[in-house]
Each structure stands twice: as structure tokens, then as C-alpha cells.
Amino acid sequence: MTVNTHKGFTALNRKFILPELREAVRTVGADVVFLQEVQGTHDRHAKRHTNWPEAPHYEFLADTMWPQFAYGRNAVYPKGHHGNAVLSKFPIVSHTNHDVSIAGPEKRGLLHCALRLPGRVGEVHVICAHLGLAESHRQQQLELLCHIVRDEVPADAPLVVAGDFNDWRGRAHEVLAEGANLREVFLQANGAAAKTFPARFPLLSLDRIYVRNAGVHSPVVLPRKPWSHLSDHAPLVAEIEL
To answer: At the fourth CATH level, which superfamily is domain 2-241?
Structure first.
């Protein structure tokens, strides 16, 4: 499952709804969850909202359901920080957060985790991605992603790359296919990437799930209710066969 948490707020930051988001994510019950824009800390919000958790948001979301989690801090500011996170029911044996920010105010990262699954000799690799809004930035970040895959992921290892690509023009598919042999699961299943933004009336295909050395069954965009109330991006889920 992949979802942009919007730092725990509804669209336009009108209401803090992280507890509701946690219950919805738990209902899906995915083995691995990719989170973008997840809050690490924020001193001011913690004082203003009575239901603000004491733990970082990724720990609060993991709760007792995902015993393993990793966080990659991307954006740091005076009151706190946020970034990407991976929640896993399987052991996370290593994780590395790659800063792929390009010059300017946007801070972006690629969180690479290696998972150990029962009965498997090798590790399963996952990368949680959040790319920039500018086309030129995304192109550079996609090239960096390809380099990371080539340098850090064995050629025969299962790999899942998921997250918010902000790739509304659909240019990531060709770059990742040629540079990292990755294929997008909705494109393979339905002939087009899933429309996920804005969640209430999805028009743009910003969120993706790419795989290599893995099969995919039943990729699904989660329904508007309750998700359009919980994030400005519609979450994606897929069953991965190794």
C-alpha cells in the first residue's frame, strides 16, 4: 500500500485526522506500507491539537500492527521535520535514505529498505519515493533512482518502488523501464497509470507502484469514502507475488 499522508491533515490543512487515517490504513492490512509526507515532529502543531500523538507519526501509524518501520527525514524546519516512511510486518534488515533534493526549497528523498521474508534466501528490496513538482527536478531524480537501483539492488532481487511521483505527464514509465527494468503495475494491468489526485475527483496519475522480479495481482485504487477525507491523494494497493 502507498499513501501520501499530507502530514496527518485533510486537504487545505483544515483538520488533523491522523487517528482516523491510522484506522483506515489498519483496515487495509497491507504487509508493507509506503508513506510520503509523514510527520516526524512538529512542536507547534503538537501544542495546538489535543489528539496529536506523542510518538512520531510513522510510529503512531505502525502501532502494534507493523513491528518494523523506517523513516527517512527529508524536510527540516525550525518546528520539526517530515519525510518518507516504510511500515513492514517483515524484518527490515537495513535502510538508507537518499537525499535527491535539487537546488531550491523542495526537499525530496528515496527511502531504500531491505526486507527479510520467511522462507526466502535473499532479501526483498523496497523504495519509498517522493519526487519533485518541477519536471526538470523529476527527470534528475528518476535518473538518481535508476542509479540507486543499479548500485544497491541485486539484479535478481525482487524490488518494489512506490510513492508519490508527481509525474502527471507519465514520463517516468519509460525512464524507469529502460534505466532500472521497472514496470508500473496499473499500466501493466489496465493500460494506464491510476488517477489518484485530487482524491475527491482524481484527474492526475501522480502515485505509482513499480516492480521488478515480481508478479502483481489486483492493483486497486482505494475508494473515495473514506479516503478522500483522509488524504489529498487516493491510496494504491496491490498484491505482490514473489
So the answer is: Endonuclease/exonuclease/phosphatase (3.60.10.10)
